[in-house]
Amino acid sequence: MNKNVRWLLLIVSVVLISISCTGKEVALQKEPLSPTEQFVIQNLLNDEGLISTDLTSQKDLFLSESVGLWLAYLLEKGDRARFDDQVNVMKSYFLKSDFIVWRIEGTKKATVNALIDDLRIIRVLLEAGEKWHESTYVQLGKKIGENLTIHGMNEGLFVDYVDVSSHAQANTLTMSYLMPSAFYAMEKHGLLSRQQVRDQLAILKNAPLTEEGFYPKYYDIPSKSYRFDEELHMIDQLYVAYHMVSIDEDTEPFKRWLLKLLKRDGKLFGRYNGQTNQPTVSYESPAVYAMAARYMLVLEEQQNAQMFIEKMLSLKDPTSGYVEKNTRSTHSFDNLLPLLAEKEVENAINNE
After folding, report:
1. Mind giving me the DSSP string for 5-62?
2. Alpha-carbon gap, residue 274 to 267, rounded angstroms
3. What is the Cα–Cα distance from 97 to 317, expressed in whole angstroms?
């Protein structure tokens, strides 16, 4: 066998091996991967690029929340190849009539969107387009954003969800869904006017606080009033505080309340009674600690941010991801938000 033939056979072999690899296997060959990222790719990301909600009962349930968080992480990491893959997955499976459906179960798609996920995806697409000088990302973000402003606003305010076909709307605006960074990006690209941005932010700025320092659950558009829940979801509270800081609003009362709970119990629980401040669940959530770390990061309190990262990491299975030790159950949200928090804190430290 002459030298040219040997080289030809070698090239053909490499090509055949590459073709035989699944998308997951190719992804795993790209280094470096953090342990959490490796867990997501190995265990939650299927061969079609869809992210399973968990490993057991909801393996065939896929959420736009997961798409947005994964894209946000990949943008933060600077992984354009995987980012592009996930954009294609989103377009193929979640995009319907320029809406992003909020969930897919098996082959059945939801009939409504979810504002928080849409805003996150729009922001990430617009920022990625600018970062990588990729006009297709910007065009897609603008297309989804234009549709959302046409069909997803009631009395000048965004609403929690819209029916994809009938365009029937919710009449509420959940406080944790208000994402100033998305509004600013949309204004920059001509999707929202300055006044429209001010109107959305006014809902945040005018939100009443309880004596303890926590925020309302949602704004009721018809009655123009804020509503509090009896049971507080800590993740919602942290999202609101995080967004408040981004528009230079004072969150000191909330921070005192948060750290008081941590000092009292030595941990944060997932939910609390709004009247008694007592936990209503027994579990700690990796996502709660992740969001607490991100909140401290935007406050420029890196020591507290690192403290919450350490709390978060204490819940991680050393051999896998954020998996419940007894039941082995997990949730995509409890892996993707920690993954994003890990990268943001790491980048903040490296940029000091």
Report:
1. HHHHHHHHHHHHHHHHS-HHHHHHHSS---HHHHHIIIIIB-TTS-BBS-SSTTTTEE
2. 17
3. 41
pTM to 2 decimal places = 0.90
Q: What's the CA gap between 322 and 325, in Å, rounded?
A: 9
pLDDT value at position 21? 42
One-character DSSP codes across 174-202: EGGG--HHHHHHHHHTTSS-HHHHHHHHH
Q: What is the pLDDT of residues 132-162, one digit of tens each?
A: 999 999 999 999 999 999 999 999 999 999 9
| Cα 94 to Cα 61: distance, rounded to the nearest angstrom | 12
Q: Quick one: DSSP state of residue 215?
A: P
Closest CA to 93 of 79, 80, 103: 103
- Which tokens hold the place of 242? 């995080």
DSSP annotation of 159 reads -
The CATH code of the domain that includes 90 is 1.50.10.10
Number of domains in the chain: 1
Give the mean model confidence (pLDDT) for residues 84-107: 96
* Spatial separation of the C-alpha atoms in residues 201 and 178, rounded to whole Å: 8
**Is 100 a member of any domain?**
yes
Structural domain contains residue 132: yes
- The residue behind tokens 């999707």 is 191
pLDDT at 232: 97
Distance in angstroms (rounded) separating the CA atoms of residues 340 and 332: 12
Please name every residue paired with 104 in a beta bridge, in sequence order, or none if there are none: 62, 109
Helix (H, G, I), strand (E, B) or coil at 95: strand
Q: Which domain holds residue 89?
A: 51-206
Residue 159 forms part of a structural domain: yes
Helices (H) and strands (E) in the chain, counts: 14, 12
- At 31, is the pLDDT very low, low, confident or very high (cuts 50, 70, 90)? low
Strand 231-233 with 225-227, pairing: unpaired
Distance (Å, whole) CA 177 – CA 36: 26
**78 token code pair:** 């600077």
Q: How far apart are CA 253 and CA 111, in angstroms?
A: 39
- Does residue 176 lie within any of the structural domains? yes
Distance CA 298, CA 115 (A): 23
